[in-house]
Amino acid sequence: MDKILVVDDNPSVCSALTILLELHDYQVVTVSCPADAMPIIMYQSIALVLLDMNFTQDTTSGEEGKKAFYQFRQLQPDLPVILLTAWTDLTTAIELVKNGAADYLAKPWDDEKLLVTIANLIELNDVQQTSKQLSKQQREREQLNHQANLCGLVFASTAMQRLVDMTVQVAKSTVNVLITGPNGVGKEKIADILHQNSPRAHQPFIKVNVGALPLDLMEAELFGAEAGAYTGANKKRIGRFEAADGGTLFLDEIGNLSLSGQMKLLRVLQTGEFERLGSSQTQTVDVRVISATNANLHQDIQEGNFREDLYYRLNVIELEVLALSQRKDDILPLVEYFTQSQKVMPKHTKQALLAHQWPGNVRELENACQRAALLSQTEEWQAQDFGLTPVDVEHNMSEFEETITKAMIEQAIAEHHGVISRAAKALGLSRQALYRRMDKFEIKK
Which residues form a coiled coil (predicted)? Predict the structure, then answer.
């Protein structure tokens, strides 16, 4: 709920404005002089100020209001201030409007005009603050891009910004990292960033999809094998750990590693030592291990399918990559990247893209963009090009709204600093729809 500060020495005016504004879902704070307004502006979240121009009896010059206005501007330069006076001094009005006053209304005011003015100014200020925040984030990202190698990662969400910041910070160390998240979210890209921004960036970076390795060859792939160690082993085989010596080894789908492989991996992490299959000679390597999984390793540990001691060796730092449905701000930038901005994206197509849940995450979105590039026959991107339909938006929005949980709303509002329009966009909702969900969950506006 937006909070409005009324600064007026007339109790009747304060009472009338309080009733009017509270009837229209505003929270109202009233004070009788500018001095009392200062600490409120400094320490409370005020959306707009209604400021009287005269406070001393028999004074009509407007100088008191003028002085207060400039003091408010020093405290909060972007705070919208509407000037109220029974004495319409146009010279003073023009001066203050030129210097940032939002509007200048004469007493007695027109209720409808005042309400429209307040609503428009608060909305405009939300947009401006959002724009400034985005500009700040863009500058931070550009600086981060300049200082770090992000390996072409495309993102716009606050959640991914935090993940990237942490990834770049962790990259400077040599600790083992576990990357978690559902299939298709880009865990391998995070591993790339970890290696490319580490002191080992110019050393080998070996990637192994553990889930794609046959069980009978998994240990040979990781640790190597001597000739004759198993059927078909006609010559000595160098394992991935040896190949990664001095550098980084990325083990994707680590939850699929066999128990015997887990035991050997634990030993390597503890001592740096292992033996090739069929050999008694101990090898020593210096390898940083980055692993990734979409599995619930805690459950695997309880079921006896994954070693708890290995889990804690791998998971010195955990980096969680959220599902695309939880970072909707990334959807349109990714579409622009995958489609190379070949065509205009109309609003209804954006709505379809944002409303879809993308269970296959970034991988599914990339495939949809490839489909669109092949099948599109119009000058603008259509929802059908991406395998979606406008009906998905028009008829399923109420069903989609029901999938938005209280936690998701609170997270979006926090990430966008309380700006409802930005939080709604991130969730794929209209502002009115978000307000409905907030009312349902009794989340304060």
Answer: none
Task: Compute the distance between CA of residue 10 and CA of residue 140 in angstroms, rounded to an integer.
Answer: 47
Element holding 104 (H helix, E strand): strand 103-106
Q: Encode pLDDT of 31-58 as tens digits.
A: 999 999 999 998 898 999 999 888 765 5
Is 3-126's fold the same as 150-322's? Answer: yes
What is d(CA 25, CA 114) in angstroms, rounded to the nearest whole number?
A: 14
- 111-147 and 11-22 helices, crossing angle to 10°: 70
| Closest to 427 measured CA to CA, from 330, 319, 312, 313 | 330
Q: Does domain 3-126 have CATH number 3.30.1200.10?
A: no
List pLDDT tens digits, range 175-206: 999 999 999 999 999 999 999 999 999 999 99
The residue to which tokens 């030993």 are assigned: 267
| Phi and psi based region of residue 246 (left: phi greater than 0; alpha: psi -120 to 50; beta: remaining) | left
Tell me the domain boundaries of the chain. 3-126, 150-322, 325-440
Answer yes or no: pTM beyond 0.70.
Answer: no
* CATH number 3.40.190.10 is the correct assignment for the domain at 325-440: no
- Tokens representing 221? 């792939």
110-144 pLDDT, tens digit each: 898 899 889 888 888 887 777 677 667 667 666 66
376-393 burial, b at 16+ Cβ within 10 Å, e below that, comes to beeeebbbebbebeeebb
Closest CA to 310 of 282, 289, 279, 295: 289
